[in-house]
Amino acid sequence: MTIGLLAPALAITLCVAVGLMGVSCKNWALVSGPTQDDGWTVIEYPDGQEVTVELKPTASMANAKSTARVMRSGNETTINLDVSGVTTNEKSHEVYVVDSLGNATLLGTLAITDGSGNLTAKTALSKFMIVVSPEADLTAISSETTVSLRSTVPSGYIVFPREISIEIERAEANASPAQMEPADTESTEYDVPLLGIGSLRQGSNTMMRANFSNGFEGTRAKVVITPKQRGLTKIKMRFSNLKEAPGGMQYVLWEVTPDNSYSLLGHLTQIGKKNEARIDTETPKSDFGLFITSESVEANPSSPAGNIVVTIVR
Hints:
The protein has strands spanning 9-18, 22-31, 43-44, 50-57, 65-73, 76-84, 92-98, 104-111, 117-123, 127-133, 149-151, 163-169, 206-212, 220-227, 233-240, 249-256, 262-267, 269-270, 277-283, 289-296, 308-313. Strands 3, 4, 5, 6, 7, 8, 9, 10 and 11 form a nine-stranded antiparallel β-sheet that branches. A nine-stranded antiparallel β-sheet has the order 17-16-20-21-13-14-15-19-18, with no helix packed on it. It is mainly beta. The protein is globular.
């Protein structure tokens, strides 16, 4: 993705020496004003207030007019997208939300009939931009992606900075390979909503929803949260039609607390049929968010590093 100039903008790079030879750097773009163009339009939507966002067409859908009504309510955001004036022959497009790290998540397919179409979808994200594209199975938006419509920045809103992590490893000219130490990779931050455990009735089962990432269409989940006595909360998950993890990978359940600390709660285990899985666990945390990532079997991670497979929301 091409990121436009930010006005005013401040680019900060923080580098930390790692080991003897490595240097780990992380870049931030800090923004205090709207973008000069619409290349990067992630904003944070306020809770309890409907925001109307215009979508700017590109050459591939030049005559189209589009708006999205975005309403965030707690841990869930509803998007109502309307498009009209489409003169191309394409009958459908995919609608994505793009988070502050540049990850794209599919909202659904926008069917075009007689030049018009609409889509209503929900996301657990509160900070994102909206992109409409004829391309399917996108996980990120780049300069090579065919984009038909892209959200603009409503008046009065400020672009949420895109965070870009860059790992650099360099060695002195006279250092041998045996002397080089790999730079540590920095853990990824995940945008996962808290579940508000304190508002749940103690001893009662509460059903939660599972938001699956792109590529897991058709997967079904049953998620039950039960706050118990002595400060423990029981978590019970059942999955069906779950796509098998790629070779050398596993599905791992994590919790994230209000201070953005992560804890591993367990691994999904197969039950019954090949594409059925379960996990039963509990946690003493008073409030938390839940999500599942795909992690290397050999890594034995203490914090998440892989892509999100599913996010649990109320």
